């Protein structure tokens, strides 16, 4: 969440409920600190990564590419309902093998036989993103 949005939300809450200004401000500062810490952890971890490519169910992580210098290889394009052609599947598998990708990242609400097939083809494990957490 962008810092401007966080601040706008906090300021709006304070204007609507000034009696709880201290609580909103405290929560805002706590969230801000947590997100800065998480951002730094991502930057530190990814700066040490040998490979910066990730295989994802669909192209939903452009902001990670810009912010952290990674490349997302998406199985289903921009939409979870898009199906790749046979040639696109071959290219995805080749690219995943070239970059030694060991994991496929899925959102908890996305299920795809195509993603499962690619994961199986390259011998990768699945990681599921659930409400800002990765589950193995």
Strand line-up across the major sheet? 2-1-3-4-5
Helical run tally: 5
Q: What is the CATH level 1 assignment of the largest domain?
A: Alpha Beta
Structurally, the number of domains stands at 2
CATH architecture verdict of the largest domain? 3-Layer(aba) Sandwich
Seen as an oligomer or otherwise, the chain set is: single chain
Determine the N-to-C terminus distance. Answer: 25 Å
* CATH fold-level name of the largest domain: Rossmann fold
Layout: helices, strands, pairs:
Blueprint: H1 3-16, H2 21-47, E1 53-56, H3 62-68, E2 71-74, H4 86-98, E3 103-107, H5 113-122, E4 125-130, E5 133-135
Parallel strand pairs: 1-2, 1-3, 3-4
Antiparallel strand pairs: 4-5
GO molecular function: metal ion binding
GO biological process, one term: metal ion transport
Pfam family, one: ZnuA
């Amino acid at each position: 969440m962008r810092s401007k949005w966080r601040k706008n939300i906090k300021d709006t809450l304070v204007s609507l409920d000034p009696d709880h200004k201290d609580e909103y401000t405290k929560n805002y500062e706590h969230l801000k600190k947590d997100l800065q810490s998480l951002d730094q952890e991502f930057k530190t971890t990814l700066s040490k990564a040998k490979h910066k490519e990730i295989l994802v169910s669909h192209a939903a992580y452009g902001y990670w590419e810009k912010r952290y210098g990674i490349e997302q290889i998406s199985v289903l394009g921009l939409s979870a309902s898009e199906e790749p052609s046979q040639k696109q599947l071959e290219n995805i598998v080749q690219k995943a093998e070239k970059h030694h990708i060991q994991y496929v990242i899925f959102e908890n609400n996305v299920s795809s036989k195509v993603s499962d097939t690619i994961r199986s083809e390259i011998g990768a494990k699945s990681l599921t993103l659930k409400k800002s957490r990765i589950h193995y």
